[in-house]
Amino acid sequence: MYMMYGWPQVIPLESGICPTSHNQIIYLKLINRLLLVVSPSHIELWSSSQHKIRLGKYKRDEDSVEREGENLQAVWSPDAKFIAVLTSSFFLHIFKVQFTEKKLQIGGKQPSGLFLVTISLLLSEKVPFADENLTMSNIVCDNKHLLLGLSDGSFQLISWKGEFSSSFRIHCYPRGSGKNTESAHTLYDGPASEEDSVKMLTSNCNSASVSFVIQLELSLPLRLLVVLYSDGQLALCSVHKKGLKHTESINVERWLYSSDAVCASLASETQILAVGSRRGAVELYNLEEPVSLLRTVSLYDWGYSMEDTGSVSYIAWTPDNSAFAVGWKLRGLSVWSVSGCRLMCTIRQIGLSSASSPMGKPNQDFKYEPLMGGTSLMQWDEFGYRLYSIEEGSTERILSFTFGKFCLNRGISGTTYIRQVIYAEDRLLVVQSEDSDELKIIHLNLPVSYISQNWPVLHVAASKDGMYLAVAGFHGLILYDLRYKKWRVFGDITQEQRIQCKGLLWLGKIVVVCNYIDSSNTYELLFYPRYHLDQSSLLCRKPLLGKPMVMDVLQNYILVTYRPFDVHIFHVQISGDLSPSSTPNLQLSTVRELSIMTAKSHPAAMRFIPDQPLRESISKNGSSSSSDSLVRHLARCLILRTNGELSLLDLDDGHERKLTDSVELFWVTCSQSEEKSNLIEEVSWLDYGHRGMQVWYPSPGVESFKQEEFLQLDPELEFDREVYPLGLLPNAGVVVGISQRMSFSACTEFPCFEPSPQAQTILHCLLRHLLQRDKSEESLRLAHLSAEKPHFSHCLEWLLFTVFDAEISRQNSNKNQSSLPKSTASHSLLEKTCDLIRNFPEYHDVVVSVARKTDGRHWADLFSAAGRSTELFEECFQRRWYRTAACYILVIAKLEGPAVSQYCALRLLQATLDESLYELAGELVRFLLRSGREYEHQNSDSDKLSPRFLGYFLFRSSYKKQSLDSKSSSLKEQSAHVTSVKNILESHASYLMSGKELSKLVAFVKATQFDLVEYLQRERNGCARLENFASGLELIGEKLHMGTLQSRLDAEFLLAHMCSVKFKEWIVVLATLLRRAEV
To answer: Which processes are annotated in GO (biological process) (predicted)?
Structure first.
């Protein structure tokens, strides 16, 4: 997947010789590391490789523009040798692109490999369909011909030699012919009105005649031409296998209708059509039969509507078709994954208001936002590292956005979920989690000596333990040791240049390179030890039968799959130690070959799924025992196909079972980690797609694996649609995701885009799963492994909450079924959960926290499994966990009655005063006074003892603190119950005053609202009395430490109260300490 980093870069363009009527770049295309830009009056050709340099240009003079019109439409031939341009006056210009022998020297000792380019005009002629009333669509082409659509609904074919064929219209199969016989039905299930609904129509040629062609999309691999008409109709047309020349073979196979479609883009590899609409949304269609709407993505959920962004202006797919960029007419662009995760967006998120809309008042805060005026054109480079975009109405510059790739988990490069790496064109962005609980990203720059000659980075693979990285560019291979932060490279550069890496795997301490031999057009596997990259240390060279599609490794076994679907499994036997001091020998033998005939799409990734006996032998022995015993258990593998289908393949008989679809990536977790603290060993694999994260567990029986969606387990585990999962930390039980952040600075024109790692725990899902399967010992062992991990208490709380919430839901669903026998399964699960959490000191906090999150009407069910509330309170009280004990007071009041809760609260009040926990004591005082009044008047309403009030009296709040004076709290007119509270407070005040603990006294009075004035009047000649001025000044000065600000504030507080009761001795002493003469 793709994530932007750094600042957008600017590529300046030259201005034309003469002014033009429309100020807009008309064409942007990238082929073979060359970027073509066509403006109304000139053409520029840039290098899009490591160095962005203009290699050539062609400028039309003023006479040519006036005579033949401005450049209006353009297309570049697939071989990058010719450029065709149609002008506003219906002239066809064909240019030839030719490299010269003038080589560019960028700097340094090595040549850049760049040559200057000449662009020359070969042909200029008037087109035969010239008509001022006609408008033209964009142009599509193959190596022989061009095709464009016209506003009269017809099409024009032109050869690259400038030869024109007669115009034609596309052919439609008649109704009932078998091609389009299904009835029309609605595909779009969103909130649009009936007239805006997206429908699949039966073939209707007449409907196309009343509208004109506005866009063409051509896919030669699919032999598919997509035609978009002005009324929103989309024609999916078949094309002859030899190309566009055979116009009679261009037939409509299917019609799609969307009344507000304005642009479209086709992903050939995944067979997905993206359709942009006037309302700013993008609809994704699966073109495999039957054609269906996959989903709709838009910025609606982020608070932006069509008034903010305008209609969709352009859609550009990444080279691997796993993501697409969307540009809007009025403002900004965004990049989305196929599953609907927003990976990047230039529009600053400010909330749900549209005050930042370009249609509204200009806002100074948004002047640095890229593409604030809208996006007209976009183009990805061939590696997906750069997204080039043109701002609406601009001919002065190109904006280049830099991307890193991650989590593709596809092809013939191995991956590990333990080490999360984003790889960019010249660096690696590595997620670090060892130093602290917080995740951070470090930029790891590749050695200049390597990347300058082998740009860009093409393959990255992390070792199984995540401590070594293998990185391959255009040639060669380098290794990085994350422990010692050192690079290892080839000592002989000629050996490095002979390697064209097409894939990387780690086989223990061995790096496996899939090498392409250019001279013979063959592929081979090279086995290098990680301690030495040199031909002399090469362990084995294994020729392959052809180009591999996907590869995988497990222990000493390598899986290689060729087209169409031939699976080969090799066993690696190593004799001798893998060390520089020895001469190890590696032998490769084929243990299984499988050829499968299937009509399904090609595999994008395959991973071994070890059976339980293999997993147990690996865990016990730490390595493979014997070739025969292990190969018997390598019976299955997981297949992810290019269309997102996930299936399980039996390697014994070739049987394939579909598991799910719409999957983008997956991680096989069973037997993949050598760490003893692996928290996800019980999970077979996890996958991510449109449904979010899904977890799969092994289950006995015919269905060997079952699926549980994270969303079904816990609503909180639904991944944010701005966070894309990057990998797992098995020893922490968390999923690591990545999201985009923007930081703005006044000294730069554009913001900096920063990938931000996010962690989301899955521990409570794993614990719940084990408890559901009656694996109490395993769940306890798993919990002990993670007891020291961050957020462990939070995981336990969510575990108990989800189990208890499920019990409440079950009770509600069975309310009207009282005649049915009551199931005890959920109750037993609740009891098992409480039994598990009871083994940890967080138990008391977890139980009362869950109670606070649920309705008090269900507390009896919770504490029937967790234990009596008074017993839990007593345990907390004895352990001096007074804060937690206070949380149980309201639960006791609800379940045991107000008398018991008041007794517990009085005990706790005395204890908190003894420990000087005055804030907690103050909350207890307010609770006691309120509950005492309610108890006396027999108005103990259970609704007043709600979780909301629990939070009110346990935690700091914005409620106004009640005063103990006036009618509501006068201690003079209260009952014996309140008198006991008064006695406790006065006793503690006397204790503090006797010891002259004045700072504590001030804190005590402020927290409990104790009536200090009344107390001082009564104790004037008691414990508050000062013997004489000298001793009082010395004692109070020692107690208050007047050098600190807080002590001076405490003295001011006491002085104000002493003045109110006219306590002269104290007034003089405090005024002296404060050096105040006016008292």
So the answer is: intracellular protein transport; retrograde transport, endosome to Golgi
Domain span including residue 1016:
976-1078
State whether the Cα torsion 813-818-821-827 is positive or negative: positive
- Cβ density class 601-611: b for 16+ within 10 Å, e for less: ebbbbbbbbbb
Per-10-residue mean pLDDT, the chain, length 1079:
94 78 88 95 93 93 92 95 95 94 69 83 91 86 94 91 89 45 34 38 45 92 94 92 91 88 94 95 91 93 90 96 96 95 88 41 58 95 96 92 83 76 94 72 94 93 91 95 94 93 94 96 96 93 95 92 93 91 91 88 88 49 48 78 90 86 85 56 78 73 49 50 85 83 87 91 81 84 81 88 86 62 60 93 93 90 92 94 93 90 91 92 89 56 39 34 39 61 89 86 89 83 76 79 81 84 81 76
Residue 928 belongs to some domain of the structure: no
> What is the spatial distance between Cα 432 and Cα 428, in angstroms, rounded to a whole number?
12
Q: How many domains does the chain have?
A: 1
Which helix or strand (DSSP H or E) is residue 552 part of?
Answer: strand 548-554
User: In this structure, what DSSP letter does residue 240 have?
Assistant: B
Task: Count the neighbouring beta carbons within 10 Å of the beta carbon of residue 960.
Answer: 6
**CB 285, CB 273: distance < 8 Å:** yes
Query: What does the alpha-carbon distance between residue 545 and residue 336 come to, in Å, rounded to a whole number?
Result: 37
Rounded CA gap, 557 and 202, in Å?
A: 52
DSSP three-state, residue 58? strand
Residue at 901 is within a domain: no
Residue 523 domain-assigned (yes or no): no
How far apart are alpha carbons 670 and 608 in whole angstroms?
10
Inside any domain, residue 1074: yes
**For residues 481 and 486, what is the distance between their CA atoms, to the nearest angstrom?**
5
Q: Which of the 8 DSSP states describes residue 179? A: S
What is d(CA 897, CA 893) in angstroms, rounded to the nearest whole number? 5
Secondary structure of 688-745 in HEC code, one letter for each residue: EECCEEEEEEECCCCCCEEEEEHHHHCHHHCCCCCCEEEEEECCCCEEEEEEEEEECC
